[in-house]
Amino acid sequence: MTTTVDAPELLRRTRELLAAHPPATTGRTAFLGARFDAGLAWVHYPAGLGGLDAPRSLQPAVDAELAAAGAPDNDPRRIGIGLGMAAPTILGFGTDEQKQRFLRPLWIGEEVWCQLFSEPGAGSDLAALSTRAVRDGDTWTVDGQKVWTSSAHLARWAILIARTDPDLPKHRGISYFICDMTDPGVEVRPLRQITGEAEFNEVFLTGVRIPDSRRLGPVGEGWKVAQTTLMNERVSIGGMRIPREGGMIGPVSRTWRERPELRTPDLHQQLLTLWVEAEVARLTGERLRQQLVAGQPGPEGSGMKLAFARLNQEISGLEVELLADEGLLYGDWTMRRPELVDFTGRDAGYRYLRSKGNSIEGGTSEVLLNIVAERVLGLPAEPRTDKDVAWKDLSR
């Protein structure tokens, strides 16, 4: 689609927004709502849905102009699941009514989202999920259990995949829904992690009634819809925009500069190697985001997420080693249910423990290696004996 909204026009519209809604005197929610309505939320989205059909590459210029004026952001770390996963899926598969209902409060942060995908028996093999959705007229009744659900204790809405036809092979009998987390039958229980926090949750669904109007995509094509969610998830985790020495490499680099008594030649070599790898990953992420201008994320995002997990674990391990005895200290084991996922916060011990989850969340590293091998490198697929077997006949 040809657009007439270029960089100068976006800058003009941004300044008009600031003039009409001065950040110093406009409430945070009111300003964010005005920004969405002006099409400056995500400029590449359609007009009327927070965007202007403009190139995605122009978004950073808008963000920079607003930040320089002291405008509030929408706290993207708190609502990352909504922004990075739910929104592109709703945009790609939602009805006009669903887009109008969900995208604005999602972007503003008025409604937090979570992801009801993984299950105790269907983590790495997500397509083997057993949560059932049974249709009764214009309503679906959902029963099952989900696990590792970030932000479920805060969420109003969830993106949910459930099995709607057990007589089909596992990838073909799944449908995709939007679940109201405040509905009867939804129970959220905390899962305390090795960090001491309960950032994750397990969610029990018992007789939850979901209107068919909150289904995304056709019945039985939920796996196709879920691929859009998963590809965007991996890009949002592994390809997030960070400055040089952002992320895990930042704290260990500062410690190296500020604590010369801790330095050894071997640690110096390790730090240099990881610093270079972190910078390569950061620049590769920039390139990946530029490729997104041309369309939806592909399997390359899986490679970025793989690198993200490996680097975080190696860098946090180096930081603990650099700090010697201090690295064994842990600041606080208090049970918390935090509002956001903080990969780099608190002390070195926290970063070391939290990074262990990076190779599990958003797709395990083992699964992502298969995706890269098959879809990026074109290597032969692993033999799959269950590809054409009805889900109900699979061994469990």
How would you explain this protein's 3D organization?
The chain has 396 residues and is of the alpha+beta class. The chain has helices at residues 7-20, 28-37, 59-68, 80-93, 96-108, 222-238, 249-258, 265-292, 300-323, 348-354, 365-376; strands spanning 113-116, 132-136, 139-146, 157-163, 174-180, 186-191, 200-211, 215-216. It contains eleven helices and eight strands. It has a four-stranded mixed beta sheet. The chain has a four-stranded antiparallel beta sheet with strand order 2-3-7-6, with no helix packed on it.
Beta content comes to: 5-15%
Secondary-structure element order, as H and E? HHHHHEEEEEEEEHHHHHH
Global shape? globular
Low-pLDDT ranges: none
Lateral strand order in the biggest sheet: 1-4-5-8
Q: Give me the secondary-structure category.
A: alpha+beta
What's the β-strand tally?
8
| Terminal-residue CA separation | 48 Å
Mean pLDDT: 91
Radius of gyration equals: 22 Å
Helical residue percent? 40-55%
How many distinct helices?
A: 11
How would a textbook summarize the main sheet? 4 strands, mixed
